[in-house]
Automatic annotation (TrEMBL):
This is GOLD domain-containing protein. It comes from Cryptolaemus montrouzieri. InterPro entries: Emp24-like, GOLD_dom. Belongs to the EMP24/GP25L family. The chain crosses the membrane at residues 150-172. Residues 1-19 form the signal peptide. Keywords: Developmental protein, Membrane, Signal, Transmembrane, Transmembrane helix. SMART domains: EMP24_GP25L.
Length: 183
């Protein structure tokens, strides 16, 4: 019975972390994008495999192109290097807050701290659903607008085709009458 509890605990720990691993060749770029709601706190940690004489630069920007965090180093272009493995762990929303420090500062019992964390988590879920509902409405409006445009374009195309077909029949009829092939 204790093993199942330990397995469930370990499994839940893996679910609460967003981790990305990739290989980065020397003198190359890797762009990553994560879509978040406005005013959501985000923290991240990265780990890079060791490579003597090689350094990795990073820049974190928001959606408007403003630089949030940056580390730049100079690397000679002529230096040959090896591919490095990069591990990136990000946390956002409720996962960012340190509830242990919050509970100690507010003199809360452990159960009260856990209830505060659950309340914040439920509020975040409600906000996520509201955001998804808003995005769904925007996408539905875009879909309906596109549907109307396709309908009008189809009607216009059919009218053009009917007009061209009529013109072609009349033109050929006149041509064949002029050549006296038909009466």
């Amino acid at each position: 019975m204790e093993i199942w509890g330990l397995c469930i605990l370990l499994f839940s720990l893996f679910l609460s972390v967003n981790s990305i691993m990739f290989n980065l060749a020397p003198n190359t770029y890797k762009c990553l994008k994560e879509e978040l709601q406005q005013n959501v706190p985000v923290i991240g940690e990265y780990e890079i495999s060791e490579a003597p004489g090689q350094k990795v630069d990073y820049i974190v920007k928001d959606s408007k192109g403003h630089t949030l965090s940056q580390k730049k180093t100079s690397i000679p272009q002529h230096q040959r290097g090896i591919t490095q493995e990069v591990s990136l762990i990000t946390k956002h929303g409720v996962d960012v807050k340190n509830y242990d420090a919050f509970g100690e500062a507010a003199n809360l019992k452990p159960i009260e701290t856990e209830l505060q964390r659950l309340e914040d988590l439920s509020n975040e879920i409600v906000q996520d659903f509201a955001y998804m509902r808003k995005r769904e409405e925007e996408m539905r409006d875009t879909n309906e607008s596109t549907n109307n445009r396709v309908l009008y374009f189809s009607i216009f195309s059919m009218c053009c085709l009917l007009g061209l077909a009529t013109w072609q029949v009349l033109y050929l009829r006149r041509y064949f009458k002029a050549k006296k092939l038909i009466e």
